[in-house]
Amino acid sequence: MEIMVFFSLLLLACSVSTNPIDADIENHNQQISNQQPSLQDIHAVLRELTASLTEQKVEIGNLRQEKQGTVSCQLGKKVKMNGAYGDTGPFPTQITLVFKRAVTNIGNAYNPHTGIFTAPVRGVYHFDWSLYGDGNLAAGGVLFRNGEHIFIAYEYPTSGYVSASNAASLLLQAGDQVSVRLYPNSRIHDSENHHTTFSGHLIFTM
């Protein structure tokens, strides 16, 4: 009888001594469980990050569009007293043509006071230029990259008015300058119909 009582007391003591430890473990597990985010919280954070990333991509695309450097302009000389736009040239040396009427000038990469397009970013650009002559002299215009002669648009008249045009795609570094220069001893004509034009745009960045 004494042995049985002692054994019961021993079991009771063991049971009492382990209960606080079990409680501590349970409390610790509960704290960890409370600290861990739920799957719903994780999904909510991911949705917010995705929305923010999408907004940033749109903003970057808009900034690139603003900086891409697109120009479309026309010679648009000052109107003479008779209301005609008139001729430019001839000159013994090449001069830079200043296309004063900028129809499109995204990013303001083209300077309508100097006639020079300055590449805002490194990339491949495409340029077109068209010239119109009055028929008494050749009409010619040369596309220049910095100081380098690239291509010429040139036409010598046999009778009547003449026109010439050309195009080129160029790899430009940021800061490179592109312009059209009047070919020596040639003459071009423009009127309110804007026959003589210069345009270019960024194809892609590199």
TrEMBL record:
SMART domains membership: C1Q
Any one of the GO CC terms? extracellular region
UniProt keyword annotations, A-Z: Secreted, Signal
Q: Where in the cell is it found?
A: Secreted
Q: Which SUPFAM superfamilies did the record assign? A: TNF-like (SSF49842)
> Which N-terminal stretch is annotated as signal sequence?
1-18
Source species, domain of life: Eukaryota
Q: Write the lineage as a comma-separated list.
A: Eukaryota, Metazoa, Chordata, Craniata, Vertebrata
Q: What is its main location?
A: secreted
- The keyword Phosphoprotein is annotated on this UniProt entry: no
Could you tell me which residue ranges the C1q domain spans?
Answer: 76-206
Q: Which organism is it from?
A: Maylandia zebra
Protein known as: Cerebellin 10
